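During the reporting period the student researcher (J.K.) took over the structure-prediction task from the postdoctoral fellow and processed the backlog of single-chain submissions. One of the processed entries is reproduced below for the supervisory committee.
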Amino acid sequence: MKRLSIPFLFLLVAAAMVAGCTTPQAPAPVATPVLTPDTTPAPVTQPIPDTLAGHWTLTTMGIQDGTAVIHPDYEITLTLNTDGSLTGYTGCNNYFGSYALTGAVTQKGMGMTVSNLGATKMFCAPYAELEQNYLAILGKTAAFDASATGLTLTADTLDVLVYQRTETLPTPA
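J.K. obtained the following C-alpha cells:
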C-alpha cells in the first residue's frame, strides 16, 4: 500500500507545480466598434398642401367600389396635422395615427398612406359596424384628392371616404 501512495503523491505534487507555473491568460481584446455615418437616405417627405391639412367631417362612404354608399347620420371627423399625424372621432371612439404623402400620381389623386392607426376601445352598438368599416378603409388609404372645401381618400380596395371641411358644413337648425 505504501508503494502505491508514493507514486500517487509524486504525481499530485507534480500536477500542483505544473498548475502553479502556468501564466494567467490575458483577457481577449474587445473589438472597438467603428462608428460610420448613416448612409441610409432619409425618406422623401412631400410637403403637406394647404388644401389637405385641417379638420374634416365625413359626408359619404363608398364601399365595394362605390356600390354601397353610406351617408353617416352622426359626426365622424378627421384632422390631418402638418406634422404627418392624424386624429379623429368615429361617433364613439377617438382615433389617431400618421399619414405620409408618397409623391405618386394615381388615377384617384396623389399618393398617400395611413399607418399606425389606433383607437380607444369603447363599444357603442349603433356605431360599431360603421366605425369598423370606416377605420378599415382609412387604414388602406392609397390616394387623396383635396380642394379648399372637400377631401376624398381612396383606399387600395377602391373604397372611398368623402369629407367636407368642418367649418363649411351647414349649422343644424
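The committee noted the following: The chain has a mean pLDDT of 81.
J.K. will present the remaining backlog at the next meeting.
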